[in-house]
Design a protein that fits this description.
The complex is a heterodimer of chains A (705) and B (286). With 705 residues, chain A is of the alpha+beta class. Chain A has 22 helices and 23 strands. Chain A has an eight-stranded mixed β-sheet with strand order 5-4-8-2-1-15-18-17, with no helix packed on it. Chain A has a five-stranded antiparallel β-sheet with strand order 9-10-11-19-16. Chain A has a four-stranded antiparallel β-sheet with strand order 6-7-3-12, with no helix packed on it. The longest helix of chain A has 45 residues. With 286 residues, chain B is α/β, with parallel strands linked by helices. In chain B, helix 3 packs across helix 4. The chains are: A alpha+beta (705), B alpha/beta (286).
């Protein structure tokens, strides 16, 4: 195909394009729009959201330019000479498309290169500041992966939209042919619709499929609303462009007349007008994402109950549930996504009922290899997420048994509907196994996912975050063999052999590990992924002040700031914000943007080992003394971190209803005593559910908790 | 190489542009005459592979349109009536580009720049060319590669008399065996170069033959009338020319009957033959 005539044709088309004045406004406008609107300097994956609108606008401008270019040769008559030369028409179309593609490519490079350079520099300098010898080549490589993935995802989405637009476009093309009975320009029209051939180069899922962390982080644009908006935008855009082409492909005489110009102008306006609602939908969707992030949690977060423990899941009366005594888990994740687990679980029959079988919940993707009871092989039944082990002899109430289960499975196969977002995965660079996902046997019949009604259809299937053990805290002894790239497994300590170990009484155990850089600063432990490790973010004074104040008022140490594994939105989906004990930072008026940006660009989750007690106020909280105390704590923390003005501007939605008891206590108690009381309360909450007696200090002369 | 056109119809919706055209173009230059809207450009576009006829057959040498369009384009030189040029290319770039497309040596481009007297403007962009210069570069691209079939629509439009004469020379210099179809309104241009003439009227062939045969169609219908300067125009006759000569009005008239007793019969020209065919107001005289 690359014949000498084709090369000459391509060279001619390139000369005609680049020697004309018209591409240059686009060349100038692309980076200007991107820099001014797109916030290209936003860190890492946040650019995914930031890039959407400017790139859509850029696409529209390029589409209009392509349509204009296509009809120019026809209108001025140069195509009539060209098409009589011995060259297939499709080659003319291809050469013109390729030439236009260089403009697309130039704009694409213009909007990606600044991001690439910025990321590379900040990444490398931050790593160096942190004492890590990071070669520039490595920085370029890693930054390039991020930026190119982002840009490719947009071009890919637009290419998909163009293809979708081609279907109705082809139908219109048939009508055009019938109307004009001219087949000559068919290839040109068809190629005109597909102005984005370069977008076909890649989609992140295709190219970066091997890099699950990046690929998963790029899933956001696949959310239904956004995706449909983009597709709708491009379908309508393509149809509009097609209409424009049809009008301009009419006889030259028509195009020169006022009527022809008006029709062409109207077609362009209709195209832009039709696209506007979709751009608005995109914009609305992005805003909704922010709102969902801000509001998420309250509807599903188990709220603190003063007088009663969190409601246990009621087992069916006929199937009493064993009580876990201890877990000994040996997890091998060295061949991701395969997980091989040997679980030895001590179980005790409940005090009031004998057990004739053990019912356990284990994620259905795991295939059980063998089961033994007190060392003797035992039969078992597997049905969906349930594992049922008949006991040779019933367990008397309170009697214990040790069950050993060997199982293996692919942990990358659990994804949230309908976007195939991984909510649990094991890869060479990331381990994410939430307890609620069922990666170790849970006593009884547990519901591993639940449906949640939220305005956004995104949040449908979530990890169950209720307490699986009725608040029991068995002793966990967990050993994990992880891929060497995992530099941190949150809550675990690395053993001399390279494996990771956790031995503690816990209600649940999450595995969350990655190639993170970890450091302690004061009482705050940071675990930050390298691509987010620039000084602007990790060294954020605001965040540190806030966390230090929180630590001061709650006595919780250390506070771990860990990156979410697959992006904040995905983390939200998976319900891991709560899994890790993270409560959202309450935004203060005037500071909300900055605070929310913390979350976004750090993608942090705060691991507060504070039991049920959260210092953060929650929007819409129904309120009681604890809520009032939480609000008080939040106010104090924000005051310490940002001053009284910021605390005063906490939005009403985030404030607990006034509580006279707490208000009276706060009014008469010095700040130091308040702080001490809150620290004690948090400490108690870490040990056991709070009881009404714990709040006796609120009464006059009540002393400290 | 011959071009054979059989029972050719071309319709644009309800409008019939060509109807039942039967024509053979053989070696040499064939002139195509007709009023505006007669179907000349449509016929030329069909021969140039740019339009598909509604019905009929077109054989160009051993090739048949539209099935063997690609082969036809390899032996075709085409200049449309109204054409555009890529304004951002220079004259030299454009002709070299055309040479590559037509598989001709690139030095041909330079030769043709000289032939059409555009050497000095060769490195200027086409967008800056005057109308006559654009016409010449268009002629050059059509003649480049010495095509077997040359289809040119109004080639002399915008050319000065010297350039028109030079164009006739260029056409006359074409090698034997080549076929050319030239559409024009100016019969005089054809008299110098055309071996045959075809007259189209309302999409139909009204005449096909030599220029002498075309002139013969007006035999007995051309008159010369000399009278006083204020002599009224004779009724019922088409005035072809009139001039004052030595105080007397000398008129050349086209009329089937003697328009005036003093009118003298005159020898008809090809143009008068053409006019006698299309008649006054474009109506063909039977």
């Amino acid at each position: 195909m690359i014949t000498k005539p084709f090369r000459a044709l391509l060279a001619s088309e390139l000369r005609q394009l680049w020697r004309s004045l018209l591409p240059w406004p686009l060349i100038v406008a692309a980076p200007a729009v991107f820099i001014l609107v797109g916030q290209w300097q936003a860190p890492a994956l946040e650019r995914l959201v930031q890039m959407q609108e400017p790139l859509a606008l850029l696409g529209l401008a390029l589409g209009a330019f392509a349509a204009w270019t296509w009809q120019r040769g026809r209108r001025n008559g140069s195509d009539e000479v060209l098409l009589a030369w011995p060259l297939p028409s499709w080659q003319v179309g291809l050469a013109r498309t390729l030439a236009l593609g260089t403009l697309t490519l130039a704009c694409w490079l213009e909007v990606t290169l600044p991001s690439l350079i910025y990321t590379m520099v900040s990444y490398a300098t931050a790593a160096q500041a942190a004492g890590m010898a990071l070669p520039w080549a490595q920085a370029l490589h890693d930054s390039g992966l991020i930026i190119l993935s982002l840009a490719a995802s947009f071009l890919g989405a637009q290419a998909l939209g163009q293809l979708a637009g081609a279907l109705p476009g082809l139908a219109a093309l048939v009508l055009l042919i019938l109307y004009r009975a001219i087949a000559l320009f068919v290839p040109r029209l068809a190629a005109g619709i597909l102005q984005w051939p370069y977008g076909l180069l890649a989609t992140p899922e295709f190219i970066w499929g091997g890099n699950s962390r990046l690929a998963a982080g790029l899933q956001a644009h696949l959310y239904t609303g956004l995706f449909l908006a983009q597709q709708g935008f491009w379908v309508l855009g393509s149809l509009g462009m097609l209409t424009l082409l049809i009008l301009l492909f009419r006889s030259r005489r028509d195009a020169r007349q006022l009527r022809g110009k008006l029709l062409a102008g109207a077609a362009l306006l209709v195209t832009v007008g039709a696209a506007a609602p979709f751009i608005a939908v995109e914009h609305g969707f992005v805003a909704a994402q922010w709102r969902a992030i801000a509001e998420y949690g309250e509807a599903v977060k188990p709220s603190l109950r003063l007088s009663e423990a969190p409601a246990p899941r009621e087992p069916a009366p006929s199937t009493p549930v064993a009580v876990p005594v201890g877990y000994d888990l040996a997890v091998d994740l060295t061949r991701p996504p395969l997980a091989q687990v040997q679980a030895t679980v001590g179980l005790q029959a409940p005090a009031d009922a004998p057990l004739d079988a053990l019912t356990l919940t284990l994620r259905r993707c795991f295939e059980v290899d063998a089961v033994s009871l007190d060392g003797a092989a035992a039969p078992f039944e597997r049905q969906n997420d349930l594992l049922r082990i008949p006991l040779p002899a019933p367990l008397a109430p309170g009697q214990a048994v040790t069950v050993t289960i060997a199982y293996h499975g692919n942990v990358a196969d659990w994804r949230l509907d309908p976007y195939e977002t991984p909510a649990a995965l094991a890869s060479t660079g990331l381990v994410l196994l939430p307890a609620g996902w069922g990666w170790y046997p849970l006593p009884g019949e547990q519901r591993l996912t639940w449906e949640i009604g939220m305005s956004s259809a995104v949040f449908r299937a979530l990890a169950d975050r209720t307490q699986p053990f009725n608040d029991a805290e068995p002793l966990f002894d967990v050993t994990v063999r992880a891929p060497s790239a995992i530099t941190d497994l949150t809550g675990f300590t690395q053993q001399s052999g390279g494996s990771w170990r956790l031995a503690a009484k816990r209600n649940r155990v999450n595995l969350l590990g990655g190639p993170w850089w970890k450091r302690m600063q004061g009482g705050i432990e940071y675990a930050v992924p390298l691509e987010e490790l620039d000084t602007w973010r990790a060294g954020s004074a605001d965040l540190q002040r806030l966390l230090a104040a929180a630590q001061d008022w709650t006595g919780v140490a250390p506070i771990a700031v860990v990156p979410s594994p697959v992006g904040l939105a995905t983390l939200d989906d998976a319900g891991l914000l709560d899994e890790t004990g993270f409560g959202l930072i309450e935004p203060g008026a005037g500071r909300d943007r900055a605070l929310m940006r913390f979350e976004q660009w750090l993608r942090l989750s705060l691991s507060l080992p504070a039991g049920d007690f959260s210092v953060w106020t929650q929007a819409g909280y129904t309120g009681d003394e604890i809520a009032a105390l939480r609000a008080l704590a939040s106010t104090r923390i924000v005051t310490d971190a940002y001053g009284s003005d910021a605390a005063a501007s906490l939005p009403p939605a985030g404030q607990a209803p006034p509580d006279t008891l707490v208000a009276a206590w706060a009014a008469r108690t010095p700040a130091a005593a308040q702080k001490e009381a809150l620290r004690r309360l948090v400490h108690i909450a870490q040990l056991r559910p709070l009881a009404p007696a714990d709040l006796a200090f609120l009464k006059d002369g009540g002393g400290q908790p | 190489m011959d071009v054979e056109i059989k029972a050719l119809d071309m319709r644009y919706g309800r409008h019939i542009a060509l109807r039942g055209i039967d024509m053979t173009l053989s070696e040499g230059v064939t002139g195509l005459l007709g009023l505006n809207g007669a179907g000349k450009s449509t016929l030329m576009k069909i021969l140039a592979t740019l339009l598909l006829p509604t019905r009929g057959q077109v054989h160009i040498g051993s090739w048949r349109l539209p099935r063997e369009q690609a082969q036809v384009r390899r032996c075709l030189g085409y200049l449309p009536q109204e054409f555009g040029l890529p304004g951002n290319l220079t004259g030299r770039e454009y002709l070299r580009y055309a040479a590559i497309m037509k598989d001709a040596p690139e030095r041909e481009a330079d030769r043709w720049l000289s032939e059409v007297a555009l050497d000095e403007a060769a490195n200027r962009r086409l967008g800056g060319y005057s109308g006559g210069m654009k016409q010449r570069i268009g002629i050059a691209q059509a003649l480049l590669g010495d095509p077997d079939l040359l289809v040119v629509d109004e080639p002399t439009a915008g050319l000065d008399p010297e350039q028109r004469a030079h164009l006739r020379t260029l056409l006359a210099q074409r090698r034997p065996g080549r076929v050319a179809l030239i559409s024009t309104h100016v019969v005089a241009d054809l008299e110098q170069v055309a071996d045959r003439v075809v007259v189209l009227h309302k999409g139909e062939v009204r005449f096909s033959g030599t220029l002498d045969e075309l002139a013969a169609r007006a035999e007995g219908c051309v008159w010369s009338l000399s009278g006083p300067a204020n002599a009224p125009r004779p009724l019922g006759a088409q005035i072809i020319a009139e001039r004052l000569q030595e105080g007397r009005m000398v008129r050349r008239l086209l009329s089937a009957a003697r328009p005036d007793p003093s009118a003298e019969p005159a020898a008809p020209t090809a143009e008068e033959g053409y006019l006698s065919l299309i008649g006054r107001g474009g109506e063909v005289e039977q």
